[in-house]
Amino acid sequence: EILCFFAAGTFATSFARTVASMVFISRLSLVALAFCPSLASAAPSPLDADDECAAGGAEGCALSALQRRARGGTALSSSEALGAESGCHTALPGEACYNEIMWAKTDGLINHPEWYVASGLTPDSSDAAVQAFVHVGQPGKCARPCGIVKPKAWCLEGAAAPTLWAPAAGTGPTQIKILTYNLFWWNLFTAKGGNGNSAGHLIKDNTEPKAFDVMGFQECEDLKRVFEPVGLLDDYEAFQGEHAICMAYNKKAWALIKNGTVNVGEDMPTKYYGRRGAQWMRLRHLQTGQKLFFANHHGPLSVNSGGVCGGEATAFNILQVMATEAEVGDALVLVGDFNANAASLTIQTLWMNLVQVFAGKSFGGVDNIFSNVDFTDVVETKIMGSGGSDHDAIYATVQIGEVELASMLKEVQPQPPKAASELTGAAKPGHDWQEFWCGQIEDATEYIMTEGVWNKSLTGEAAYDPEHCCRECQAIGEQCQSFVWKDFSEKVQGRECLLSGNGQPTKKAMDGFVSGLAYTASAALAMRSAQGAKQSFRALAAPAALGGRPADMR
User: Fold this and answer.
1) Which of 271, 344, 428, 500 is deepest in the core (most CB within 10 A)?
2) Confidence (pLDDT) at 51
3) In angstroms, rounded to a whole number, what is the distance separating the alpha carbons of residues 181 and 247?
4) Rounded CA gap, 101 and 104, in Å?
5) How are beta strands 482-489 and 507-517 bridged, if at all?
6) pLDDT at position 403, please?
7) pLDDT tens digits, residue range 169-189?
8) What is the reported pLDDT for 44?
């Protein structure tokens, strides 16, 4: 058990003498997770529906695409350096955590230094440095130590909304058929061996009457395994991006100008897999000369949090990539499993700056397609089915240039109000973990509890992590509208989950706290946000005799 514990600790942020250097995930830590039952079962938390390891113990424990990529040396960033005074506790002699620290300093670091080679720890390291290492590796063993200042997260620097543009048409009308698909790789391909090429067949079956122009995939390790068995490899140029995302374009219709990947977000420490990127490519249509900038993103965890920087900053960072790497006049398309649905600040920020073309239904609508086309330029949308994944593949076709009059006059409903209304309808979360999502989560934030409003304090399993706390809130129903999770509460000498009936709480930045809204409260805010969502990048004016259109469609 000691071996398992300290091997797992290598997942943590390492703390050198200044507790600032970062640790790389070692092979030993991966072995520990796969073969140490105590690590698999210590937490009462079940496995997430996304980015997770399958249930079933050592033999059934397949690491996710992101975890397996980390085996090659992905560093945990400085945003996991642990926080300041509030919500912390420095271990004292006689406490279980203190015993863990002393064992590491007097035995582990001396007799097994290889376990700590990437951490920067030595037998002379401070107790707080060792405690921080233990906390991140196994939070239940130790609280966050006090006295360590948390630096500003890298992804908050310069986060602001850029100015985007309407697409300039090529020499003729161009239809663009767009797909986004989370492949659930570890399960569909690693555990099930491709499931009879079910994902590839799903894609191939939807290529008529028009082939896909661009495709974005999340939890994707090798598109050759998807395309080749169904005869699509000759038609598409595929790129493997960082952070287990892939993209492809139809090389019979488009030519590549350039491509790349940029980090735009990072997971919360309580649900940490690493940084998250935006993979992109810029293309030119072979017939019409239409320029297209296509971006693909797999969002940070926890779901509806936006990660350590929050949904607004993560969305701004994605938009900045588009503004920087694209050129004015390019058609812009953004797809992905954002790990965020319409209840989140991520999606709400994006739909204020791009037109939300289509949203799927998986996990409340985390799979999305955005663009700078008008919503009236959307020709077709479809939920294709899962093909063996835990997400549905979705696609949309948009047209740029020479929109037919019949299309301009057709009854089209903007996507945001529809997506927001479904949060409490067809897309609402369940209590079962495979159907659960939290309305909204904000890291390093404390919601101020209002006097005279219903509230309740919970400990134990309900306080295990922010998602457990939110789940308890949502299980109560309309009475509970928000929650606050404390990493360490002086009152209960451990983790605490505070529930409240206030759906619009005052908030303040606070390390060691995670707060959020129940889905009913976040859905109400989403409906208000959806009314101001962008519908157009240019004024469309139909002939006056036909009634025209509003000049300002936002």
Assistant:
1) 344
2) 55
3) 10
4) 5
5) antiparallel
6) 65
7) 899 999 999 999 999 999 999
8) 37
Judge contact between 102 and 159, C-beta under 8 A.
Answer: no
Per-residue pLDDT band at 5 (split at 50, 70, 90): very low
Identify whether 93 is preceded by a cis peptide bond (ω within 30 of 0): no
Which two structure tokens, joined as six digits, stand for 453?
Answer: 């409003």
CB 545, CB 365: distance < 8 Å = no
Lowest mean pLDDT among 46-50, 320-324, 340-344, 466-470: 46-50
Cα angle 485-486-491, degrees, rounded to a multiple of 5: 125
Residue 434's closest CA among 45, 40, 44, 47?
47
Average pLDDT, integer, range 503-517: 93
What span, in angstroms and rounded, lies between the C-alpha atoms of 182 and 190?
Answer: 15
Report residue 43 as tokens: 């937490």
User: Which amino acid, one-letter code, is at 233?
Assistant: L
Cα separation, 306 vs 300, in Å, equals 6
Residue 45: is the preceding peptide bond cis (ω within 30°)?
no
Distant-in-sequence, close-in-space partners of 209: CB < 8 Å, separation ≥ 6 = none
What tokens does 511 get?
Answer: 């390390």
Q: What is the DSSP string of 142-192?
A: -PPPTT-PPPPPGGGTT--PPP--PPPP-SS-EEEEEEEEE--HIIIIIIT
Beta bridge partners of 515: 442, 484
* Cβ within 8 Å of residue 59, ≥6 positions away: none
How far apart are alpha carbons 323 and 325 in whole angstroms?
6
Cβ atoms of 214 and 333 within 8 Å: the answer is yes
pLDDT tens string 123-173: 999 999 898 888 776 666 788 888 877 778 888 887 789 999 999 989 999
Amino acid at the residue 10: T
Confidence of residue 89 (pLDDT cuts 50, 70, 90): confident
Q: CA torsion, points 420, 423, 427, 431, in degrees to nearest 10?
A: 160
The pLDDT of 313-320, averaged and rounded, is 97
Tokens describing residue 406: 């019949």
Half-sphere exposure of 66 (CA within 13 A, CB side): 25
Q: Which amino acid is at 236?
A: Y
pLDDT of 76 > 50? The answer is no
pLDDT of residue 412: 64
Task: Please state the rounded mean pLDDT for residues 425-432.
Answer: 95
- Residue 496, SS3? strand
CB distance 384 to 394 below 8 Å: yes
List, in sequence order, the alpha helices (H) in 334-485. 345-353, 405-409, 415-421, 466-476
Instruction: Give the DSSP H/E element, type plus range, for residue 484.
Output: strand 482-489
User: Rounded distance, CA 2 to CA 28, Å?
Assistant: 13
Q: Quick one: three-class SS letters along 383-396?
A: EEECCCCCCCEEEE
Query: Which tokens is 270 given?
Result: 């309580």
pTM, whole model, 2 decimals? 0.81
Sequence-ordered list of residues with C-beta below 8 angstroms from that of 296, at least 6 positions apart, any chain: 180, 216, 217, 218, 241, 245, 246, 247, 278, 279, 280, 334, 335, 336
Contact indicator for 512, 488 with CB cutoff of 8 Å:
yes
Question: What three-state secondary structure class fits 127?
Answer: helix
**What tokens does 509 get?**
């930045």
